[in-house]
Amino acid sequence: MTVPVLAQVVEVPSNVNHLFDWPAVLPFGINRVVLLMFLATLATFLFLYLPVRTPRVVPSKMGVVVETLVNFVRNGIARDTIGPESAKYEWLLIPMFFWLLFLNLFEITPLIHFPVTSRMAIPALLAGLVWVTFVFVGLKKHGLSYIKHSLIPPGVPKALLVLVIPIELLSTFLIRPISLAVRLFANMIAGHIMLAVFFLTTASYFVFEPKVVAFAIPLAFAIVITAFEIFVAVLQAFIFTLLTAVYIESSINVEH
Amino acid sequence: MEADAAALIGAGLAYGLAAIGPGVGIGIVVGNAVQAMVRQPEMAGQVRTTMFLGIAFTEALALFGLLLFFILFGAGG
Amino acid sequence: MAPDLLILAAEEEKSGLFLILPDVSELIWGAVSFVVIVFLVWKFAMPALDRALGDRQAAVVSQLEEAEDAKGAAERLRDDYQRRLDEGVQRADQIMESARSDAESLRQEIIDRAEAEAVQITERARAEAESERARVLEEARQEITSLSLDIAEKVVGTRIDASGHQELVERYIRELERETAE
Questions:
Q1: Does A38 score more than 60 pLDDT?
Q2: Can you tell me the ipTM of this complex?
Q3: Which residue among C6, C16, C20 places its CB closest to the CB of B75?
Q4: Alpha-carbon gap: B38 to the closest alpha carbon of chain A (Å)
Q5: Chains that touch B (3 or more CB pairs under 8 A)
Q6: Which of A98, A223, B37, B75 has the smallest count of CB within 10 Å of its CB?
């Protein structure tokens, strides 16, 4: 009896797909997700550029934040993982980290509430780019022996090679990019579903029984999970960038 | 309809079972990382980075299970 | 209630792969966005950031150099003062030392001179006393000689040749003196 009322008031999605299904609103297949990508691109650029646009000896507060974060990606992720050659790969790592950070943080940004990375497009795109990068780096550095070294780990008995080579082939050239993309995508989709479930539950309880304060329970969960999702958003951007650095490093030093 | 039901049950089982192993695995990773940090606090930063890497690798398996859940749920729902 | 809800809004169904396969238009626009952000970051943001960092580094380096210079100057000044202070102390020590040795030698000199004077005075006094005694003795001896000659003249009744008998009388008196001394 109250179901239609509820459906009208809070528009509970019938299927989890509906949380992620955005029809195109503009030509060329531009839907809400694509618009949010543009927004994230703009936000990333402004975040990195505006605070440091005018050079000064004592930086502004945002300038300090930006410098600290960029130095963290440069030193904490790139140099500590890749080593002295890390500057050659900063072109990929720095924009990737900040872009992913904004795309992820849209999950909990008020009025947006949608992580663009919970759609497979960007994780798949970036994982593909990472795959191309680390294979290219390996081939450029070691030629064809890169393939040989990455398929045959040192110290494996000859008899086991039949087993080891397919496993290494799968894990290095297939599982790596797929797990890279899926890790980011699935984390964000799970977070978004969790937030949707708790906030919609809060809304339903509030609509059905506003006098019983039962809605406070899912609301409390929703708040806690929002905080957790901030952590996850930052962590996943960090992990994606760190793993990219790790894969590039493993291509550079493939011999051990 | 019965195939749909089977797909829905399978979806639940797929994610539930896929979460067991990574759950135990992440516990082991973090537990050992905490031990390492307590034993050598000066290495805590490096251990923490490695711990997150380990968690990421382990967690991927549970996330594959989550994907399977979506596939089966979509097929059944 | 949940099944009812599911049925209520289950109009259009998409396959289970809808969620996990990338949408083509999103892929293309994502690629475009990524190219744009890489370009923007490396064309504008990173140069600005590096310039800011470089300027700051240069400023810090020049400030460090200035501080280094100032420190060097201060150290030189301090060394200079220290050296002067050391010299002053040394000089004061020297002066004290020389004054002390001067005083010592002066004292010694005064004492020596006083002693020498005392010795001289005593010596002179003794010499005076000696010469006085000798003179008195001589006078007495001459008196006695002349008296003896007078007595002898009286006794002999003739005039004794004073110069002839002088020697005789003096020898006699000397014998007398020797006897009295014994």
A1: yes
A2: 0.87
A3: C16
A4: 22
A5: A, C
A6: A223
